[in-house]
């Protein structure tokens, strides 16, 4: 009998019942987390006094507004509203196990997503209502706005918050890595501009035009079907739900547990695939190639190289003629000394060092690396000095600087090799 009841009961499941069960479980989990810190002593000595004092200050703002409030312009109300618009997430209540059955039931999946959108809209609406309720004295008493104008501001902010949640959810599922960051930044800028600019252009006194909420509704109507049809957002939905469930726990334990650094395994921006840079397969060339790849794949080293590049070029442009010649000789040598230290560090890496590289191989490797990493600096410095002094004919100075560095690099290799032999290093 129990088995029959259990089987018949399982047939009564629907997307609405699944959503209600997950929603109730979520709030039970949050209540258990907050109950560990919100005992009766905290409520008695912290929460209740804070509500009493805050309520008294709020009533006082209605009766006797502070004089400093008159100095605050109306547009400042947009700043906290923009935070709500650009920081909210779309709650879908997706779970890892849904890949086994929920994705096979399109009606259930769509029903869960629609209820998640409704839940997100209600949550965003409550937060926005609290925000504007706190700023009502500023809007009504100080700037003399009507209640209808305040209601219009709340509606527009609420619509744009929903649009932001939908856009970020779709972008999180569609893009990865730096592309996701770029697209989300662009969407955030466009969303903020479409929210603020119409207010300054058409409604400077805080009164919104009728077309702005209409446009917001049309955007929402267009974004919801895209979310329902999207097949690439499931993993990001699960990750966002996991972070949402643990948000309260992380907040309460943020000052208790020491946070360990997270190891990221992202592909580099430059040389994402291991392709050859040189055609030769001799040991020195192979070692030089891996050294250059290591340099190009580390953003911190590229940042230092570009900083020295910019400072050297600026110094060259601001110096007189005789100083330009001196800088053109010395600055490439300074850069090459830094590159030489990079070569030494790479050769002494535990994995690389075990091959016991010969002195000649290390000399040829360092010479190749110094040549290719320093010659752009030498040529650009020569071009900067030559074009500034001789115009178009100064292009020849760039070629001369390249030839100079070619010979100086060879001489530097012989000097470093001689020093290495005197020290008795292998």
TrEMBL record:
Superkingdom of this protein's organism: Bacteria
Pfam family, one: EcsB
Natural source organism: Paenibacillus mendelii
InterPro entries linked: EcsB_ABC (IPR010288)
Keywords: Membrane, Transmembrane, Transmembrane helix
Protein name: ABC transporter permease
Transmembrane domains' residue ranges: 37-59, 79-103, 124-142, 148-171, 183-203, 209-225, 304-331, 373-406
Claim: Thylakoid is one of the keywords in the record: no
